[in-house]
Amino acid sequence: MDILIKNCNLISMAENRKKYERDTDILIQNKKIAKIGKNIEVSNETKIIDAKGRICMPGLINTHAHLSMSIFRETLDGYTLQDWLTKKIWPMEDKLTREDIYYASLLSFIEMVSTGCVIANDQYFMAEETIRAANDIGVRLQTTRTVNDVGNLGEQRIKELEDLIKEYNNRYENITLNIGIHGLYTTGTDTVKKCIELAKKLDLSVHMHFCENEKETEDIKQAYNVVSTVDVLNKYFTETNSILAHVVKVSDEEIDALSKMNISVAHCPVSNLRLGCGIAPIQKMIDKGINVSLGTDGQGSGSNLDMFETMKFAALLQKGKYENAKNMEAYEVLKMATINGAKALRLEDKIGTIEVGKDADIIILDLNTETCQPEGNIFSNIVYNAKGSNVTTTIINGKIVMENRQILSINKQEIFEKCTNIINKISTK
To answer: Are 384 and 312 spatial neighbours (Cβ–Cβ below 8 Å)?
Structure first.
């Protein structure tokens, strides 16, 4: 179905267009953005969306999440990261079934679509069920089977990852895969080397937690007998494209070393604060030319998948950390949530901007609300005042997935009830 979005105020995030264009039409044909301009004429069969007074911008991109952890929302209080994982989360995860993963993933996809996010970079297990859920609701997904050596099961997990890649790599246009290493503190040298070899062989990115808190950092140094955690990356990761989640505990010298590598940082400010990990030195990374994108982490530590909230925290924290109000200009924060995320996932040729020829991943915002009027600086208004609830329509790969706040393919209440039953069943109390 062809779609014409009429009279929108466009934030395309494209370098070859103005940053803000009023009263603009966008024509979608064959899932692609076919034309951008004024007064585009179409046939009677074309679906018309009147976006007068509303904002059109690229769908948001979440570069680090654990989508099946939606059911662990608000289980964190009173725990450190390591205690929360070992004493609470891992014992509950051991009880999860494939059906549980499917419905927990659906809940996350409902949340994503409702808040304007078109793709998440997921790291978990039983990924086949998350892929099934993504296809059922119509979102994009980059995923993996997370590999670590916990329980001496590294070899088995690598085999499961290889099987996943064999089955799903290039099978669906909305699904991409990467090599998921949980972290250097849970994964030994031999397993890491095998994962890197697989990434090189298949030309897939590596997605890994890195230096989230002080204990992890010290554990890595001890396990790998290195002075700096970045020494491990320099030894094994130099020929890979890597997405490093968190990167909170790094020195200026380590940031300089990271800037010389083919890495992107998935900054998860809300989760880092919630877990008491600290504030990542993101401004210094940006100043060094590192591609920084945004992530929410799982809802167990990040609370929700609202990327508008993530943008606001990302901006405010760097201003406060360095006591410089000029840090993190709002438009640059929007880039972190859109085109920078696309670059991190190696999808910048498809998504991240609204340009002719790209896939039609577009969200429409209604800022005619109490918290967003008057608009003032439009980019600042979106970063600091808009919320996921301001998204009225979400279009993914040329298909309307949500319109007028109604998701078209799912019974939300049924999923809510199923997920409540799941957490009640596996809860360790």
So the answer is: yes
The answer regarding whether domain 60-344 maps to CATH 3.90.1150.10 reads: no
Q: Where in the chain is the domain with CATH 3.20.20.140?
A: 60-344
| Greatest alpha-carbon span in the chain | 68
According to DSSP, residue 268 is labeled -
Q: Among 272, 200, 188, which residue's Cα sits nearest to residue 232?
A: 188
CB-based contact 268:295 (threshold 8 Å): yes
* Superfamily (CATH) of domain 3-58+355-407: Urease, subunit C, domain 1 (2.30.40.10)
Residues of the chain with CATH 2.30.40.10: 3-58+355-407
331 vs 348: CA distance, rounded Å: 18
Would you give per-residue pLDDT tens digits along the chain (429 residues)? 899 999 999 999 999 999 999 999 999 999 999 999 999 999 999 999 999 999 999 999 999 999 999 999 999 888 888 888 898 898 999 999 999 999 999 999 999 999 999 999 999 999 999 999 999 999 999 999 999 999 999 999 999 999 999 999 999 999 999 999 999 999 999 999 999 999 999 999 999 999 999 999 999 999 999 999 999 999 999 999 999 999 999 999 999 999 999 999 999 999 999 999 999 999 999 999 999 999 999 999 999 999 999 999 999 999 999 999 999 999 999 999 999 999 999 999 999 999 999 999 999 999 999 999 999 999 999 999 999 999 999 999 999 999 999 998 889 999 999 999 999 999 866
Record the tokens describing residue 56, joined without a space: 């059109």
